[in-house]
């Protein structure tokens, strides 16, 4: 994916603090609270079965007073709410949206192609079909030139120029002029730029549904090597406070090393419990609407960088491909004009078809006979004999060439002798 395009998405269209500030910490805590019970029990079983929790009778957890249960639930909710608020305040250090977008594109490269087709399908169709219209108009000019310059090579050269100019004009038509420009009664602007609202809707829908989903963002937060240290530290600090408060409530003092292990285990197991948030987060962040509105508000110069960078990477290739195809078409025209190439007539085609029908085997016996002839010819084929014949022919041609060179040399020497004799006669004194 074009680096310019990624930068545009991550810097101009999204404000992480604004977007994640839409989450309600109390709602997040409400959704995650049931998961904390399962998560906590799993951590206790893995890390602290024989430590400070072992001194607490199991009956205490089963038969806690209602008031104590409510207090624990409140502490649980408060922990989750406080942690959500802390994440919102530090989201830029916890979530690298640029890496998240690039990772999605690298893991499934077809996504970039899908996005490109969704946003630029009309431009691709125009680039394909423009050859007919631009080629026709430029072909008229080529025809006029041919009337005044009667040279078969004008067709090949003209085809090269027309092929080059066609794709060049199509690309210019798509992206230029960037700003609306009045030309008499007309307002000219690049075809892609005139579709800003339509493209904004397609672009934002694709990003919200395929790239920046809650699941993909949480996965990036929990696994990106650049941001996981900050997330682990933030979670560990809040988890230590939460666990210490609960332990003090039971008049127990946990080992700091055990608490650190428990926090690490909690982070490790957290990906299996955040799925309860995905539906709420996707709905509450409203990324599709945010991206759409921000893209519609972009200036024409900014919006032009959404799709043009992808064309720019292969722009020269597109133009040269048009030039080569134009040259090939011109060479074919030149061959037909000069007679080097001929188009078979309808009579030739019918005769060829009739000849094929006549030579086709009409029965299984004919097929067997034909196969037998092929087999016999293959078996009788002698490569050494074929090479020998070729060598003899080449040898005779070389001899003939040497003979011709020898004759030319002898003729040249005889002429020199005649010229020398004439010169000596001219220089000798005349007899009286």
TrEMBL record:
The keyword Transmembrane helix applies. The chain crosses the membrane at residues 126-149, 155-175. Keywords: Membrane, Transmembrane, Transmembrane helix. Residues 422-432 have a biased composition (Polar residues). Residues 408-432 are annotated as: Disordered. PANTHER family: UPF0754 MEMBRANE PROTEIN YHEB (PTHR35791:SF1). This is DUF445 domain-containing protein. It comes from Ditylum brightwellii.
């Amino acid at each position: 994916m074009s680096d310019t395009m990624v930068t545009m998405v991550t810097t101009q269209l999204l404000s992480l603090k604004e977007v994640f500030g839409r989450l309600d910490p109390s709602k997040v805590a409400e959704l995650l609270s049931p998961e904390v019970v399962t998560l906590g029990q799993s951590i206790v079983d893995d890390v602290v079965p024989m430590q400070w929790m072992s001194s607490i009778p199991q009956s205490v957890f089963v038969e806690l007073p209602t008031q104590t249960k409510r207090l624990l639930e409140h502490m649980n909710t408060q922990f989750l709410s406080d942690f959500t608020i802390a994440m919102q305040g530090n989201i830029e250090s916890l979530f690298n949206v640029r890496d998240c977008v690039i990772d999605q594109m690298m893991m499934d490269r077809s996504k970039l192609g899908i996005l490109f087709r969704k946003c630029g399908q009309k431009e691709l169709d125009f680039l394909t079909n423009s050859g007919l219209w631009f080629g026709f108009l430029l072909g008229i000019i080529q025809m006029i030139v041919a009337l005044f310059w009667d040279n078969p090579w004008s067709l090949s050269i003209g085809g090269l120029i027309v092929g080059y100019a066609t794709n060049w004009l199509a690309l210019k038509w798509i992206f230029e002029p960037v700003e609306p420009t009045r030309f008499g009664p007309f307002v000219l602007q690049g075809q892609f730029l005139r579709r800003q609202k339509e493209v904004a809707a397609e672009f934002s829908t694709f990003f919200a549904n395929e790239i920046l989903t809650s699941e993909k963002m949480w996965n990036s937060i929990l696994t990106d090597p650049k941001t996981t240290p900050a997330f682990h530290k933030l979670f560990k600090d809040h988890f230590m406070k939460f666990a210490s408060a609960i332990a003090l409530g039971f008049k127990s003092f946990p080992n700091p090393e055990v608490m650190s292990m428990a926090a690490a285990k909690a982070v490790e197991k957290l990906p299996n419990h955040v799925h309860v948030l995905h539906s709420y987060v996707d709905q509450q962040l409203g990324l599709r609407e945010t991206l759409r509105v921000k893209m519609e508000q972009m200036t024409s110069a900014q919006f032009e960088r959404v799709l043009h960078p992808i064309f720019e990477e292969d722009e020269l290739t597109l133009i040269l491909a048009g030039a080569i195809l134009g040259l090939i078409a011109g060479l074919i025209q030149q061959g037909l004009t000069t007679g080097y190439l001929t188009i078979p007539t309808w009579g030739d085609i019918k005769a060829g078809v009739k000849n094929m029908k006549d030579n086709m085997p009409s029965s299984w016996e004919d097929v067997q006979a034909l196969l037998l002839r092929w087999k016999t010819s293959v078996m009788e084929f002698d490569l050494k004999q074929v090479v020998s014949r070729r060598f003899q022919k080449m040898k005779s041609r070389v001899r003939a060439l040497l003979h011709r060179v020898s004759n030319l040399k002898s003729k040249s020497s005889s002429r020199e002798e005649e010229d020398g004799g004439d010169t000596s006669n001219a220089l000798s004194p005349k007899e009286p």
